[in-house]
């Protein structure tokens, strides 16, 4: 069963099902202006790889001064082995699209299991367990986004650059 995120209501809503999660993710990308903060334990082939999602990521990346897409991956090596389409975009725009990996002090069961996408218009998608297609999303919910953003900032400050994803300077 899928429950899509309603685009007319700004409050947080439960979302379930892969299609509903993908639709919520795309709506949040489309609503973003200049900034994204994304935390993913594992970047699978069906996340941030559709042509529409990549087009939105490109749009945000070239939105102008202050554009910033920050991604914390739990396992960047798996992303590299898979050859995810996001890697190419990150390698072409390394000053705007930055990828880091979790530091040891931030590796906890809760942090490693959850996934979230935050935009700069107070929108978010939060999955407490990234392996399950259930969570909550909102197009505009500052009070709901704030704890996620604070946690992301803490993780980002400790995170290490995912150097394995950087292009070789040959």
Mind explaining what this structure looks like?
The chain is α+β, with helices and mostly antiparallel strands. The chain has one domain (13-164): 2-Layer Sandwich (Endonuclease, Chain A), CATH 3.30.870. It has six helices and eight strands, in the order βαβαβααβαβββαβ. An eight-stranded mixed β-sheet has the order 1-7-6-5-2-3-4-8, sandwiched between helices. α1 (18-31) packs parallel to α2 (51-61).
CATH homologous superfamily identity: Endonuclease Chain A
Please give the radius of gyration in angstroms.
15 Å
Q: What's the architecture in CATH terms?
A: 2-Layer Sandwich
| Strands, total number | 8
Envelope shape:
globular
Strand order of the largest sheet: 1-7-6-5-2-3-4-8
- Unreliable spans: 1-8
Topology diagram in text:
Elements: E1 13-16, H1 18-31, E2 35-40, H2 51-61, E3 68-73, H3 76-82, H4 85-92, E4 97-101, H5 109-113, E5 115-119, E6 124-127, E7 134-138, H6 142-158, E8 160-161
Parallel strand pairs: 2-3, 3-4
Antiparallel strand pairs: 1-7, 2-5, 4-8, 5-6, 6-7
Helix pairs in contact: 1-2
């Amino acid at each position: 069963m899928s429950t899509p995120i309603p685009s007319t209501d700004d409050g947080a809503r439960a979302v379930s099902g892969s299609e509903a999660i993908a639709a919520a993710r795309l709506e949040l990308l489309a609503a973003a202006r200049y900034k994204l903060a994304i935390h993913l334990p594992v970047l699978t082939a069906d996340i941030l790889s559709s042509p529409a999602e990549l087009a939105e990521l490109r749009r945000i990346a070239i939105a102008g001064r202050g554009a910033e897409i920050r991604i914390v991956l739990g396992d960047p090596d798996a992303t590299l082995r898979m050859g995810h389409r996001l890697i190419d975009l990150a390698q072409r725009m390394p000053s705007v699209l930055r990828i880091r990996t979790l530091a040891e002090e931030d590796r906890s069961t809760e942090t490693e299991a959850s996934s979230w996408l935050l935009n700069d218009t107070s929108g978010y998608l939060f999955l407490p367990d990234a392996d399950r297609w259930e969570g909550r999303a909102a197009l505009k919910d500052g009070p709901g986004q704030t704890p996620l953003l604070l946690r992301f900032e803490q993780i980002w400050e400790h995170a290490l650059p995912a150097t394995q994803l950087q292009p070789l300077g040959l």
